[in-house]
Amino acid sequence: MTETNAVDTDGASPATFEESLAELEALVDRLEREDLTLEESLAAYARGVTLTRACQTALETAEHRIRILTEPSVDAPLEPFSTDD
């Protein structure tokens, strides 16, 4: 978005989850505060859908990575459990 009130409709998602989420929050705030035309509202809604999908994909990817890291591996060496405090 080049200006504060412009809606970015190029379809590109910000580079990170945090950027996508921040833009989505700003977009929702703008929709709630401003009196937008129908076209502006539709463009903002479309952008919001794109950002929501980007955030959902990022969360699913993170969840998948966590599952991989926390699943017991068949090849992992067993380590003794220590009760020393």
Would you kindly provide a written description of the structure presented here, covering whatever features stand out?
The protein has helices at residues 17-33, 38-70. The chain has 85 residues and is an all-alpha fold. Helices cover 59% and strands 0% of the residues. The model is unreliable at 1-9 (pLDDT under 50). α1 (17-33) runs antiparallel to α2 (38-70).
Q: Over all CA atoms, what is the radius of gyration?
A: 21 Å
Tally of helical segments = 2
Number of strands: 0
Class computed from helices, strands and strand pairing: mainly alpha
Query: What spatial form do the alpha-carbon principal axes imply?
Result: elongated
Oligomer: single chain
- Terminal CA distance reads 55 Å
Strand content: under 5%
Features of this protein?
single chain; 85 residues; mainly alpha; 59% helix; disordered N terminus; cytoplasm; Exodeoxyribonuclease 7 small subunit; Exonuc_VII_ssu_sf; hydrolase; Exonuc_VII_S
